[in-house]
Amino acid sequence: MAPVAVSQPTDILSTKLDKLSLSGSKQPDISYHPDEAKWKARTARRLAEDPSLLDTPLPTGFPALLESPLVWEGKDWKDESQWTYNLNDSQLEEIDGALKHFHSLNVPQGRINQSTFPLPTLGPILRDLSRELYSGRGFFVLRTLPVDDYSREDIILIYAGVSSYIGSLRGVQDRDAGVLAHIKDLTETHPAKAIGAPAYTTDKQVFHTDAGDVISLFALETAAEGGTSRISSSWRVYNELVKTRPDLIKTLSEPWTHDTYGGDPPFRNRPLLFSEEDKIIIQYARRIFTGFLGLPRSQEIPPITEAQAEALDAIHFLAEKYNLGLNFQKGDIQYINNLSIFHARDAFTDTAEKKRHLLRLWLRDEDHAWKLPKPLEEPWQRLYYTAKEDEHRFPQQPEIRSASKGKGGAAEGGKYV
């Protein structure tokens, strides 16, 4: 598949500040952490004001029902063996041999791929598992890599090499072509004003999506307590909203003001929900509309509406209702279809001896990738096709990526939001 084309500016992507939209308007009473009582009160108020909302027709092209293995609830899964693939001793030996082979080539780290990290017996199995992400349940866990047997540099190479069989393209997550991110509490070393995302705290992360097709998380270490990784089918949430609140489907499919936190332009407009070739794709992060810690929502841009505030809460609480908690263990790699699954994390507690530390890759498998809606083509182009392999950077230590820095931490305008 050729690189996705960069779409030309359209009304949907317009960033012209409409001063009239700011006149007399203000941000709804909503924060990053969802408040169920406020959500229910807002819902009751809006329906009382306009009962016809329940009769809103679906936007053109949006299905009345999604039927697929991607539609599931947490209670549908009875045992983790249904989604976990356990690596055996011979496969771990094959991975170790692939690492030695890669080192023998003496090439830049960014060239780690299926040809330079050969897995003759495990590779075909991983390719089958990649297919599962798009046409099956949409997620799986690979268990488990022996983290303590390798240096930090080598375990990162193993993670990247194994993951190249799930998605051959790695997305750029930060400046200087950084393709690897560390998810770790940094509040002991960074002031609150420098942190603009919960990924760098012990705080709860609400249900959201990242950027890219496939999100991979690798556990270098788990928390002393808490930190459960949770996923939820966005397709199941969609079906529920179609049945109970079709007006919110319409709201989600219309343009929203995405804060770039002082960037140029100061905001971008696009929908959160798309229908493309009989597939529903949702792309959103709640903090972009509510702010978080050192990165509050900009006051100089149009606020979200009451309908949008209700939609954000509806997404979260329905995702929470249908979620599956994963038993994420040290050395596990979690892969999820970011276009059909929300993910979240419980709050957690670290100790001096046991600190939660995950690595993240954004992957794309062109053999199985879905067609993208036009508003996502340019961001995907930037993620997957602008940096050359030799430029790929794999940070060895945690750092706050530019799009997640607080206003006291030199944020760079949400370039990779």
Total tally of structural domains: 1
Radius of gyration: 21 Å
Number of helices: 10
Mean pLDDT, rounded to whole units? 92
Helix content: 25-40%
The CATH homology group name? Clavaminate synthase-like
CATH architecture group name = 4-Layer Sandwich
CATH topology (level 3) name? Double-stranded beta-helix
Specify the oligomeric state: single chain
Uncertain spans, ≥5 residues at pLDDT below 50? 4-23, 409-417
The biggest beta sheet reads: 7 strands, mixed
| Class of secondary structure makeup | alpha+beta
Q: What's the order of the H and E elements?
A: HHEHHEHEEEEEEHHEEEEHEEHEEEEEH
Shape: globular
Determine the N-to-C terminus distance: 24 Å
CATH class category? Alpha Beta
Q: How many strand elements?
A: 19
Report strand %: 15-25%
Draw up the topology in text.
Elements: H1 19-22, H2 36-49, E1 84-86, H3 89-105, H4 122-135, E2 139-143, H5 152-163, E3 169-170, E4 181-184, E5 205-208, E6 214-221, E7 225-226, E8 229-233, H6 234-244, H7 246-253, E9 256-259, E10 267-270, E11 273-276, E12 279-282, H8 287-290, E13 291-292, E14 295-296, H9 306-321, E15 324-326, E16 333-337, E17 341-345, E18 348-349, E19 357-364, H10 374-385
Parallel strand pairs: 1-2
Antiparallel strand pairs: 2-16, 3-19, 4-19, 5-17, 6-16, 6-19, 7-18, 8-15, 8-17, 9-10, 11-12, 13-14
Helix pairs in contact: 2-9, 3-5, 6-7, 6-9, 7-9
